[in-house]
Every structure is written in structure tokens, then in C-alpha cells.
Amino acid sequence: MARTLLRVPSTAQKGEVIEIRTLIAHPMETGFRPGENGRMLPRDIIRRFTCLYNNRPVFEAELHPAIAANPYLTFTLRVEESGILAFTWKGDNGFSQTETRALSVA
């Protein structure tokens, strides 16, 4: 399991625009770099990031080999109701990780 850092406010006012920051520590490998034996190291990247708010998609990103290791993504979201934010990273070799955070809207 990769280490994630999420910066999400736990409370917000109805109609407020909040900033969400995500970072995942993942050993990205482009597939274009030779290893110690001279053979190309197999590609191992995070290919997709999705954020759901109460099971509705609010942000998606498709990532490519040029993305940096430990991808950092930030986006804004206008909140209208309390709920759960679910963050999912999917990658090569069956990699998948989901983290959730509760958000209380007053």
C-alpha cells in the first residue's frame, strides 16, 4: 500500500469552494529506463485518479509516463451537502488504492 497525504477541510459552509490537495508516494517507473542488467525496467505508473463526492465523480485525471514520481494533484470543489469524499488511484500491475474523508457542511 502506498502512502497518501490528503489535505481536505473537515468542515465547510454550504456553497463554499474548498481546495483539495492530494499526494501519493509511489515508485513511478516510465518503462523507458534500463536497469542494472541493461534491460528496460517494466512500466509502473499511476494511470488514473478519481475523486467521488457522495458517489458522484467530481474530479478525474488520466496520467501518463511523463508524470513525476509521487503525483501531487490539487483541485477545487464547491460543496452543497455533507458527505464522503473518496479518492482512488489506479495504476499498472493491478495497483489500486482508495482513501476516504468525511466533510461536514453547515
From TrEMBL:
It comes from the Bacteria. Residues 9-100 form the Sulphur oxidation protein SoxZ domain. InterPro entries: Ig-like_fold (IPR013783), Ig_E-set (IPR014756), SoxZ (IPR030995), SoxZ_dom (IPR014880). It holds the Pfam family SoxZ. Gene3D superfamilies: Immunoglobulins (2.60.40.10). This is Thiosulfate oxidation carrier complex protein SoxZ. It comes from Paracraurococcus lichenis.
